[in-house]
Each structure stands twice: as structure tokens, then as C-alpha cells.
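TA notes. Do not distribute before section.
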Amino acid sequence: MTLEFFTSFLAWCTLVNLVFLLIWFFFLTAGGGWVRRMHGKWFSLTDEVFAATHYRMIAYFKLLWVFFNLTPYLVLRLFV
């Protein structure tokens, strides 16, 4: 595996994960009631617990995205 291939791979991973994060956020903000009703059928969650859980998971996903996708990609692009 060459360094150029790994840089390209990280670029695509960064882009795909960013799109996933934006879609997740869009579904919660634009269709929050629909998503709550759908999850309410599966789990017994109050609205406060539902919102706190999803926004906490978005924060964890964003943190992992920055550490494992964005930072290595930027390091390879800037310093190699």
C-alpha cells in the first residue's frame, strides 16, 4: 500500500463519514418527530432521553471522525 493510496483512502473515508454525520443530523432536526415515533415503537424513551441520547451519539461520532479520519488525512496531506 502506497502513501498516495492511503491518503486517497482516508479522503474517501472522511467524506463518506461526513455525509453520514450530516444525514443523521438532518434526520434529527428536520424529521425529529417522525424519528421519535419510529424509535418509540421499539424502545420506551421519553423525548428528553431520546434527544440527549442521539445528540450524545452524534458528538461521539464526530469526535471519532476527527481523530480517526480527518486528523490523519490532514497530517498526510500537509506533512508528507
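Switch to the second chain here.
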Amino acid sequence: MRDLLKIFKALGDETRLRIVYLLMEREACVLEIKQAMRISQTRASRNLGILHDADLLKARRDGPLVFYSLDTKLIKKNCAGLEAMVKQAFEMDQTSLLHRERLKRPMARSADDEQHR
């Protein structure tokens, strides 16, 4: 019961639901989520952390970046049908569709990245 409450609390926020919908497209790092949704890195990190703590996401480190993906095994175990509900809720939402299109683009380099090259 406690796990289910944690999941519902994590999903009780529009930004986190939009992130789940984005991650149904593919795994992504914080910077890609930030760029796709046009939110701050802090906000993206905080919301990814909440989803991860609720065991909805897996994290994979690749150098300095952490890539997040949906933990479909645990989602099916704890709340079967979640992906279908999220997909149905957002598949006609223009903002979410725009976020997914942005996620497909290469990650933009910031001025800080260019200085370190």
C-alpha cells in the first residue's frame, strides 16, 4: 500500500506526468528534459528525482550524465495500465506533443559547453 501511495503522490503533478509521457518516447537526461519542456534544470532534476524515488524510473550513468527511463517492469507490477492512461491523456495534448518533438532533436549546446571545448 505504501508503494502505491508513493506512486500516486509522484504522479499527482502535471510536470511529472508530462515527463513520464516524454520518457515513453525514449530515455533522456536532465538536460534533454529541460530542453524539451523548456523548464529549469533544477525543476527537471527535482521532478525526475521524485519519479525515481517512487520507483517509476531507472537511472543509468554515462560519464557525467544520468539517463532516465521508465521502469516498465515495476510499473506493470505496481500499477498495470499506467502507460496506457498517460498516453491516452497526453496523445492529443499539443504541448506534450511539442515536448516530444523537441526531445527528438539533438541537444542544444550552451555557451558554457562551448567554452569547455
